Amino acid sequence: MQVAITHAPIDPAAEAADLARGRTDVGALVTFSGICRGDEAGASIAALTLEHYPGMAEAEIARHVTEAEGRWPLLGVRVVHRVGRIVPGEIIVVVAVASAHRQAAFAAAEFLMDYLKTHAPFWKQVERAGKSDWVDARAGDDAAAARWETKRAAE
Amino acid sequence: MKLVYFAWIRERVGKPEEEIALPASVVTVGELIEWLKGRGEEYAHAFDNPKVVRAAIDKVHARAEAKIAGAREVALFPPMTGG
Asked: B22's torsion region: left (phi>0), alpha (psi -120 to 50) or beta?
């Protein structure tokens, strides 16, 4: 299972180990973990609650995994995204990428995270002092995803 | 046609989904949003800034000019903030 959405805590080491287990062609394994910070926009928070669009979230991530596999020589990809209530210090998302060499693994992991932030249907609500607010999208995230379009056009 | 809403659009509309019969004059996603605005105060509030509303037709991202004819499910939601 390449893509999973879960209410349970994520173990990044286990996800990464699955990609390399029993094979000797993997020379690079990159694991990115996105972690819930204790502050948002300069103020401390109690928790984040993540909502998603079931069916579309999985499909949209899978579509980008397929695109990454077309752009780089990858030997394995795993994306696990958590939903529900997440407290500071807990992992929100793990992207693990295996390849023969590091360049492809680093690039594909970054590509997947940039697209996940702007195209995968998840929404964060921040909880502080008994009040909940929806997190605004960041223009910087759109710019980060857009630069992969520029790179593709140049290829 | 089934409409589904997420995040603060869901909260403002006051329901996660509904079945709706659309007039033939509503052809695109953008026209759907404009039409919904006229359905009551909660819809007017949810869609008061159509520029920030994102859409998906049958779980695939769609632009405002995309045609909704034949769609089983149209989703309307704010910009995504996952990851």
From this structure: beta
